[in-house]
Amino acid sequence: MKGRLLLSISLVLLLQFASAKFNVEKSSLRVTSPESLKDVYGSAIGNFGVPKYGGTLHGGVIYPKSNQKACKSFDDFDLAFKPKPGGLPVFLLVDRGDCYFTTKAWNAQNAGAAAVLVTDDRVEPLITMDTPEEDAASETYLNNITIPSALITKRLGDSFKKALESGEMVNVYLDWRESLPHPDERVEYEFWTNSNDECGAKCDMQLDFVRDFKGMAQVLEKKGFTQFTPHYITWYCPEAFVLSKQCKSQCINHGRYCAPDPEQDFSTGYDGKDVVIQNLYQLCAFRVANESHKPWVWWDYVTDFAARCPMKDKKYTTDCANEVLKSLGFDMKKMSDCIGDPEADSDNPVLKAEQDEQVGKGDRGDVTILPTLVINNRQYRGKLDKSAVLKAICSGFEETTEPSICLSTDVETNECLDNNGGCWEDKAGKITACKDTFRGRVCECPVVQGVKFVGDGYTECKASGTGRCAINNGGCWNGTKDGKSYSACSNDNSEGCKCPIGFKGDGVNNCEDVDECKEKTACQCRNCQCRNTWGSYECTCGGNLLYMREHDTCISKEAAKVGWGFLWVIFLGLAVAGAGAYAVYKYRLRSYMDSEIRAIMAQYMPLENQGEVANRVQHADI
Ligand SMILES: *[C@@H]1O[C@H](CO)[C@@H](O)[C@H](O)[C@H]1NC(C)=O
Ligand SMILES: *[C@@H]1O[C@H](CO)[C@@H](O)[C@H](O)[C@H]1NC(C)=O
Ligand SMILES: *[C@@H]1O[C@H](CO)[C@@H](O)[C@H](O)[C@H]1NC(C)=O
């Protein structure tokens, strides 16, 4: 009962702040279709999932036929929203109500949606959708929500439903490019946190984040890209309760600075007071480190304290804190000056300053959600996750001044995991044109092992230049069979693929063996026997002849022994001799015929030149 009372006191305190000024952080939602709805609308960024700070996301809106509040798994309704390859990502439109926002987002994500648009169920200004304070079920998946969520007004939601009902396509862009101011080359950010380590999922998430983000935060800070400040929320005890047991256990400095009991049960475990003191230690650790120009040591102190002095081991004490400080080389005198006397009935300047900071300034509303990151004086929305937060910080730099860490693989948008971001990839799925950047994915042909790929990045990238065959065989076909290897890539031919001799095809996807025997392109000599092989053929000649592959003919084995060139000399010689002999024969024959005819004719008629008749027997020597 006492616990309840305490809780209600702190709630009163909380409400005092909540009633002040709360800004809803927004992303813009640009409708590109249908024509009648074309415009830019506001949407409230949900405080879970991964909003794409600095980027945009294009999608088609779908309103499910059933499970319209997305409180149940879409599997139970046989509904899925994963687009086919090349299709627009699906923005699932769901109704507010009946279950947690996080449950809706989780069900939408599991059904393949790329983003969830929750339509408000009442006419009111936009609110921020937050994670549930206490819900064991959602704790298990809270950190696995990676899709962004946005709340839209009832009016816009109704217009979407109407358009969809009449068969129109609703396409929208979610745009986070202006969600954070990005005025210059340094990002100022604050982390509103708490040293309490026993508040369930929220505390675990907060500690995991500090541990994960530490390395990155320290690099950014050391190089002067960021200016980081941690903040701790405290409440004060109303005058009337200052002397009550409750305020005494929850507050220090006579009710000036309080924190709720960690277990919400003030009869056991640690008291709110212990939390305020540890918060003060962490604040002072930052102050002292900052004075010696090493503000990043705060990250070391907080992670070391969480690891070495957890509540569950009953080590959440000032003694343990002092040990951690000593091991990090803190100036203990400066530390105790900063901490002061928690029992004193006077202000603590450090905690006083924190209370003043809590009140919103400029664009920034009061900080009421813990933990909260404030980047360039704007509250960050989305899950506390290393890459999601880095992306948000990166979007806070003036364009082109972002540090290289923002363009590295550390900022995974995961957009390449899905359908390869719509970019080109090789058949094996190993080389891709999809590049994750904090502004979203880009499709750009890569350079792999010094080999440049050229193309549009979406439908085609081809390895080019020398050495291209070394990578994935230049994107060309290759094959091995019966111990023989063939490739359609050649390094001298700096573009394209060509099937090797003995194959036909496009050279990229396939090269097919040419059946030389069937297609009668070789081994067509008489009595030859043709046998096709992979990439070639075998030919055997009939009789005792040998097959000459280059000339596709058969020759005798002797001739083959002598050699083809020599044979030609003989052949030519014979031919010349033969032709000569023939000419002589022809001449002789004619002379003989002539004299014979003359002789015969001479027997019947007188001839003038009798002298020639004597020659008639001369034919015998032919
Ligand atoms: C969340 O993700 C982690 C690791 O990625 C996985 O082990 C766990 O099962 C997931 N939880 C749920 C509820 O899907
Ligand atoms: C940290 O130090 C810088 C300058 O070194 C100063 O501008 C800044 O206000 C300090 N922050 C705090 C919280 O003391
Ligand atoms: C094809 O080429 C690739 C890359 O050059 C090589 O790793 C692979 O073993 C080759 N495959 C065959 C079947 O020859």
UniProtKB/TrEMBL annotation:
SUPFAM superfamilies registered for this protein in UniProt: PA domain
One Gene Ontology term of the molecular function aspect: calcium ion binding
Pfam families named in the record: PA, VSR_TRX
Database matches in PROSITE patterns: EGF_CA
Gene Ontology CC annotations of this record: clathrin-coated vesicle membrane; Golgi membrane
Membrane topology label: Single-pass type I membrane protein
Signal peptide as annotated in the record: 1-20
Subcellular location: Cytoplasmic vesicle, Clathrin-coated vesicle membrane; Golgi apparatus membrane; Prevacuolar compartment membrane
Keyword Nucleotide-binding carried by entry: no
Domain EGF-like calcium-binding residues, every copy: 513-555
UniProt keywords, alphabetically: Calcium, Cytoplasmic vesicle, Disulfide bond, EGF-like domain, Glycoprotein, Golgi apparatus, Membrane, Protein transport, Repeat, Signal, Transmembrane, Transmembrane helix, Transport
GO biological process per UniProt: protein targeting to vacuole
Transmembrane intervals: 562-585
Main location: membrane
PANTHER family in the record: PROTEASE-ASSOCIATED DOMAIN-CONTAINING PROTEIN, PROTEASE-ASSOCIATED DOMAIN-CONTAINING PROTEIN 1
Family of the protein in this entry: Belongs to the VSR (BP-80) family.
Protein name: EGF-like calcium-binding domain-containing protein
Organism expressing this protein natively: Rhynchospora breviuscula
